[in-house]
Design a protein that fits this description.
The protein is mainly α. The protein is built from 26 helices and no strands. It is globular, with a radius of gyration of 23 Å.
């Protein structure tokens, strides 16, 4: 392929119908992550009994609302992140030991159960339980899906397809906001919570038609099956030799014999890793302690924490109540527009990480968000409606430029396959902790500062500090052939010192 071949031509050549189907089913997981993040935003006043309605519905056997104050609602919102943290920590070891596919199937169980509990909740405790269970699945899926996509995507478009995680998150946020706009009345808000369970069932059915990651299979003594699946994903006439060679896994006759035995074994049997993969496999604690992986873990933790500490989820989770005092009649509609912009901008900016690089995308994104945080604070503080509205829109567009999609790609590019699960778990654990801090304390800090958007000055400060650290510490990964090349300059400098 020519170096300057247009992107659309390589996509047409490299993307088969089967690959597109697998990708579509897979990204329903991150869709759930975005959906649950924002499902309580629009109907907040209805759920908490601030707005009562005479609207009847098929769910009239359940209470129309659940009385809550600001602190209680922030607990219901943030308990989701606790489940996400637990799910993220468990997903790395699970996807390494049992495979990417089985781990994804297990996440759908949480989606269905959590949705059922939330939908039929009659008090704060039950609603919290449902949000916790939903969070378990979302925490796990946001770890395993980026790994799976990176392992099935065509090598030259890994960056582009890596953004599909964030695109599906944005789509989930948009659908939740749209449903909230139309269903925030009476008991209809429960339908918003029920939709997640239906999608979980749909994804579970689709995952029985999706293959295991070929790279994971190759590392677990199934080289022939790995090649067969890769051929199906790329097209039977595609040349996959270079891609298979990049796995750096040698199949022995014993591996092939064991694979044939597994194919005839009972369902549920899992292949053992190759001796090389088994000896190199790294768990979370080993990765954290090992000096070889510490620079990468610091990098992904910094980027993932920054993704949340710059304030994006203050918009996703609380924007309707935040803007309602300034824009009482249009706040809900503005947030739908913001969610739509987030989705469109993420799609439009998707090719940029492969064009200008991962690190420039992240730094430009942080700079834009920090600037807009200051402008949003000023707009809310001085009652300048147009400034607040434009700052909100550009704030979200800046997030979509890089800090939204790029962090999910980095773990696969900063460490080898033996530690990618552990590194991704560390990264997403940091992300969930930061999400908890924002979701739990944003309304409390905002109220303590007297409202009027002053809290966004704090987000601008985080953007400045975190952006400076990322500029210094995180390496560029675009166009690098492997982990050694990514960290080569840093390792060479350390040897000199």
């Amino acid at each position: 392929m020519a170096h300057d071949e247009p992107l659309y031509k390589s996509l047409i050549r490299d993307t088969t119908a089967y690959f597109a189907f697998v990708l579509l089913v897979t990204v329903l997981g991150p869709f759930q992550f975005g959906y649950h993040l924002s499902e309580l935003n629009a109907p907040q006043d209805v759920i908490t009994c601030k707005k009562l309605s005479s609207q009847s519905s098929a769910l009239d056997g359940l209470p129309q609302c659940i009385p809550m104050n600001t602190v209680q609602f922030s607990v219901v919102t943030s308990i989701y992140t606790l489940g996400g943290l637990i799910g993220a920590l468990g997903a790395g070891p699970s996807c390494n030991r049992y495979g990417r596919l089985l781990t994804m199937r297990m996440t759908t169980v949480s989606f269905v159960l959590g949705s059922i509990i939330e939908t039929f909740a009659t008090n704060i405790g039950v609603l919290c339980l449902g949000r916790l269970v939903s969070g378990l699945g979302c925490g796990a899926t946001i770890v395993v899906v980026p790994i799976y996509i990176a392992e099935i995507a065509p090598p030259k478009e890994k960056g582009l397809f890596g953004t599909f995680t964030q695109i599906s998150i944005c789509l989930g946020i948009l659908i939740a906001q749209l449903l909230g706009y139309f269903l925030s009345k009476g008991n209809l808000w429960r339908i918003i919570l029920a939709v997640s369970g239906a999608l979980g069932l749909l994804q579970l059915a689709g995952l029985f038609l999706v293959p295991e990651s070929p790279r994971w299979l190759a590392e677990h003594r199934s080289p022939q099956n790995a090649r067969r699946i890769l051929h199906r994903l790329r097209g039977h006439n595609a040349d996959i030799d270079a891609e298979v060679k990049a796995w750096d896994i040698d199949a022995t006759e014993d591996d092939i014999s064991e694979e044939e035995a597994l194919l005839s074994a009972a369902p549920g049997s899992h292949p053992a890793p190759t001796p090389k993969a088994a000896s190199a496999s790294i768990n979370l604690w080993q990765a954290v302690k090992h000096p070889e992986y510490q620079p990468a873990i610091i990098a992904v933790v910094a980027v993932m924490s920054t993704q949340q500490l710059t304030g994006i989820n203050s918009i996703v989770m609380y924007s309707v109540s935040l803007l309602s005092s300034l824009l009482p009649t249009t706040a809900s509609l503005l947030i739908v527009a913001v969610s739509a912009l987030n989705l469109v901008a993420t799609i439009v900016f998707a090719p940029l990480s492969d064009k200008i690089g991962r690190k420039p995308c992240i730094l430009i994104s942080i700079a834009g968000m920090g600037t807009c945080a200051v402008l949003l604070a000023l707009g809310l503080l001085f009652g300048i409606k147009i400034l607040a509205a434009i700052a909100t829109l550009v704030f979200v567009a800046s997030f979509a430029f890089g800090l939204g999609p790029v962090p999910f790609m980095l773990a696969n590019e900063l460490v080898g396959p033996e530690a990618v699960g552990a590194t991704q778990s560390c990264a997403l654990a940091a992300n969930w902790i930061a999400t908890f801090l924002v979701s739990q304390f944003f309304p409390i800090v905002d109220k303590a500062l007297g409202g009027q958007g002053k809290v966004y000055f704090i987000f601008a400060g985080f953007a400045a500090v975190c952006g400076s650290f990322i500029a210094y510490w995180v390496p560029e990964t675009k166009g690098k052939s492997g982990v050694e090349e990514v960290w080569g300059k840093r390792e060479a400098r350390e040897r000199i010192e």
